[in-house]
Every structure is written in C-alpha cells, then in structure tokens.
TrEMBL record:
Domain D-isomer specific 2-hydroxyacid dehydrogenase NAD-binding as annotated: residue spans: 118-249
GO molecular function: NAD binding; oxidoreductase activity
Highest taxon of source: Bacteria
InterPro entries the record matches: D-isomer_DH_NAD-bd (IPR006140), NAD(P)-bd_dom_sf (IPR036291)
KW NAD (keyword) present: yes
Keyword NAD appears in the UniProt entry: yes
Entry keywords, A to Z: NAD, Oxidoreductase
Protein name stated in the entry: 2-hydroxyacid dehydrogenase
Pfam families, per the entry: 2-Hacid_dh_C (PF02826)
C-alpha cells in the first residue's frame, strides 16, 4: 500500500475468537486493525459483514464480503480481501477505486465443497433423496435402480482447488477423471486426462458425472446450453458448485427419466430453475 503504517487501518469482518484476533494482529505487523465481525455467526453457513460508519473514512483495507456499496463509501480503501472465491460483484464499475487491490479466498474451500459434491453424487446414485422424502411419509416404495460410480467417468469442468479435490475423491472409488481447463498443458492433481474448453463437446458424451466449478465470466456464461446438454447420457449427473449462470436454466435436461436432488438451496446468483439431473451444490 502507498500509505505509512500509522495512517492505515484494516477493518476485519471475520467472526473471530480472541486467539484468532491475536494471530491477525501479529500478521499485520503493526498495522492498526479493527475487528467488527460477530462471533455468533461462526456456525452459520453465510456470514454478513458491514463497515461501521465511523470507520468508513479511515479504512484502507477490508477483510470480508461487505456489500459492494460499502466499498464505494470508503474513499481511502486500497485493498479488499474477500472470504469467498467469487469476486464478480466487486469487479463492477464504481465499486472499487482505480488501483485498489482485490484478492479472494481461492483455495480455502476445495476440501469442504468437493466433499459436499461427493455426498450429493452418492445420494443421487443411490436415490437417497427420494428415500429421505418418502420416509417422512412412511412410504417404503422401491425408488428404482441404484448405480455405482466404480468404473464410471467423471468430467471436471474447472480443475482448480475444488475440481482437483473432487477428482481425487472420484479416483479413490475407481472412476476415470477428465479435466477441462483453459490451458490443458497445466496438470492438476487427481486428473487422468486434461483437455481444453474447445474439446468439451467431444468429452460430454462419455461423462457419467459432470462437476462444474467455474466462475461467472463471459466465456462461462451458459457453458452448458441446450446443445451441449443434449450430448449427455440419459443418466448423467451434473453437480454445479460454481456460478449458476454457467448452466442455461431454460434448457431441457433429460427426457422421460429425470432425477432431481431435493434439499438444495440455490442462491440468488445461481440458476433458479433446477431441472432434470442438475444438482446445485451449496
């Protein structure tokens, strides 16, 4: 940053314990830090952050996913560190001042999100979502054939931290893994074969499970459209842990045999319409 330490102020919105605050103070190396996070949020799935009005004029760095409009009210802000991997809402014009740094928490969620996707895959393959719903109604009807992932092919669209972690889990149960990324020459752990996005159509017909963990960009918008969804096997599963606009929600998914996960709660920035074999993973 371009300001002396005694003129800087970090506003930390994380819901920290006292020992964790001490760690952040040591890491800041003398830069003043205000902790405004609510520790009561620690057990919640979503944390809420706001910059107190009396700190907006002096904040030079913010840790937390504050509302974008709060950033524009901090005239000295030089650095925003989010606790999410996605930062698209902070890249809109007028949110951050020119020259400000924007960093994210990419790499922090690979294990937790991939394990959630893994659990969703098993639930769909074993019809657990149907049995759980039926059990509440004392309905013990057979939900149909269950499948095993052993010997199947998993296609990872996005092979970053989440995609790579998911691929390793899939390989552990006997699945072949194919990764799709912008630069196929860059290897990722857990991926047997890597291809570029230009080869996506050739890989889709072979995939039994498709995991998606891509950001919201012009190149990923409706990446899975009607034409590409039509290339899938009838029983293929799509697990989307990325942005919802990577899948066209208006596209028909599947035919007579449709399976839909229940208990999935799409966020506002994700696809509202969940049809066919698409499971939105939170």
């Amino acid at each position: 940053m371009g300001i002396e330490n005694n003129h800087k102020l970090i506003v930390n919105c994380l819901p920290l314990t006292e020992p964790e605050k001490a760690q952040f103070m040591r890491a800041a190396k003398g830069v003043p830090q205000e902790f405004v996070g609510d520790p009561a949020q620690r057990g919640n799935m979503n944390w809420h952050a706001r910059i107190p009005e009396d700190l907006r004029a002096s904040a030079t760095a913010i840790i937390g996913n504050v509302p974008p409009e709060d950033c524009s009210k901090c005239p000295r802000l030089e650095w925003l560190q989010t606790w999410s991997a996605g930062v698209d809402k902070y890249q809109r014009p007028g949110v951050l001042q020119p020259g400000s740094m924007l960093t994210n928490a990419s790499g922090a969620y690979g294990q937790s999100v991939s394990e959630h996707m893994f659990a969703m895959m098993w639930a769909l393959m074993k019809n657990l979502h149907i049995y759980a719903k039926n059990q509440a109604n004392a309905n013990w009807t057979d939900a149909g054939r269950a499948s095993s992932p052993s010997g199947m092919t998993a296609l990872m669209i996005g092979t970053g931290d989440i995609g790579s972690h998911f691929a390793k889990l899939c390989k552990g149960i006997g699945m072949e893994t194919i990764g799709v990324r912008r630069n196929p020459s860059v290897e990722a752990e857990g991926i047997d074969h890597t291809i570029g996005f230009e080869s996506l159509e050739q890989a889709l017909p072979y995939a039994d499970v498709i995991s998606m963990s891509v950001p919201s960009t012009p190149t990923t918008y409706h990446l899975l459209n009607a034409e590409r969804l039509a290339l899938l096997k009838p029983e293929a599963l799509i697990l989307n842990a990325g942005r919802g606009d990577a899948i066209d929600p208006r596209s028909p998914c599947g035919g007579a045999r449709r399976r839909q996960a229940t208990g999935c709660r799409p966020r506002r920035d994700r696809a509202r319409t969940i049809a066919g074999r698409i499971a939105i993973v939170e």
